[in-house]
Amino acid sequence: HTEMEKAKITHHQSHCLALAYPTQGHINPMLQFSKRLEQKGVKVTLVTTKSICKTIHFGCLTSIPITFETISDGYDEGGLEDVESIQAYLESFRLVGSQTLMELLKKISRSGFPVDCIVYDAFLPWALDVGKKFGLKGAVFFTQSCAVGTILYHIHKGLLKVPLLESEILLPGLPSLEPSDMPSYVYDLESYPAVFKLLVDQFSNINEADWILCNTYYELEKEVVDWMMKIWPLRTIGPSIPSTYLDKRLEDDKEYGFSIFNPNVDACIKWLNERSKGSVVYVSFGSLAVLDVEQMEELAWGLKKSNCHFLWVVRKSQEAKLPKGFLDETSEKGLVVSWCPQMEVLAHKAIGCFITHCGWNSTLEALSLGVAMVAMPQWTDQSTNAKYIMDVWKLGIKAPTNEKGIVKREAIEYCIREIMEGERGKEKIFNADRWRILAKKAVDEGGSSDMNIEEFVTKLNLIKA
Ligand code: UDX
């Protein structure tokens, strides 16, 4: 270590290794949480896999004072194209990941500033076993809502049988749910058995974790958080969104967070700056969801029919599904980009509503930046998030599907008009703003999430002392 590095080390007290599951929707919240820990004086080493690092857009990380390290999932050379099945990938990640995590911990230890605690994504329970071998503390980090966590916990314990038999699901702290409100794996066990196992296994060794952290905020999920806190030392630490956006200090230096894809920042913001307040429909389905050709067409023509301005993120891999002639016909009204700086977009005053797949990060970002939503859930936890958006938090509507599960263009147009023009829209926008204020309060000094992070850091420092 240089003298400067040593000075920095003494300034920090504890050292956390934050291990993220290697996808956009998991690395970003872990990175944002790491930044909050750093702000409170903890040193953080953020770790993900070598294979995903090949695709990371590093420009977004230059302003972040966090150390990066990698471990291996067994696919370093060929990358993720070589993965034969999800099951094979997860198995390889568990074996090779455990081994390379041990090596990394030894390497860090030799550097003179050993790790005190592993903060690990709930998808990687084996990281806790590795940490315990080294005598470290362990904090599991959930990147889904507490409601979804509770559903999966009940399945794990055998308290909720799958495939579901009942038509109304009643669980503590949750509203009455229909089967279609459940995470997709619960009613569609066959499609992705390895993912279902991954989700349920999040709870396999949870009783050995020293902390259970959830990327949500207390005010948002009070009932279910209260219930979970009866069984576990659960703490809410979210929303994992930089204060620059929550405070709408948009003229400040930007923090784009982590991105797998390269965002068209200037093009998006310049275009939004030219639009009037609340006039733009923002459309994005996150980093993984794949719409089929028919759904893409219906969405495209629905946007056109609405006659609103729109900013639509269509990832490179999905571009060929855009209907012929669509870009030319809508060039006056719309901007289609392959990736955008989503937090900055949602915080922009031109945005009037968000057509979303309801991934947990997108949901939290819209809630925290006060944007009303049109929910078009695709799979995994998104149907449960959509139920909450519509019926619990009441800041959005769920787009109706036909018998084939497609949202037709008329439905798209109707939902956009409801939010942008209707009386119902005014109520949703009002509620969205309420959630924004509560989100900001939660992470501001003395707020519920801030206090929980403070408590976590204090306890870590006490152990260290
Ligand atoms: C996945 C799952 O789908 C989600 O349900 C789960 O809870 C977490 O992991 P993903 O599908 O990618 O993630 O969606 P989401 O959780 O919404 O995360 C997407 C992230 O990418 C958000 O943080 C969003 O801000 C960011 N994003 C998206 C961009 O930065 N630019 C874009 O153009 C689109």
TrEMBL record:
SUPFAM superfamilies: UDP-Glycosyltransferase/glycogen phosphorylase. Keywords: Transferase. Belongs to the UDP-glycosyltransferase family. This is UDP-glycosyltransferase 74F2. The lineage of its organism: Eukaryota, Viridiplantae, Streptophyta, Embryophyta, Tracheophyta. The gene is LOC107427149.
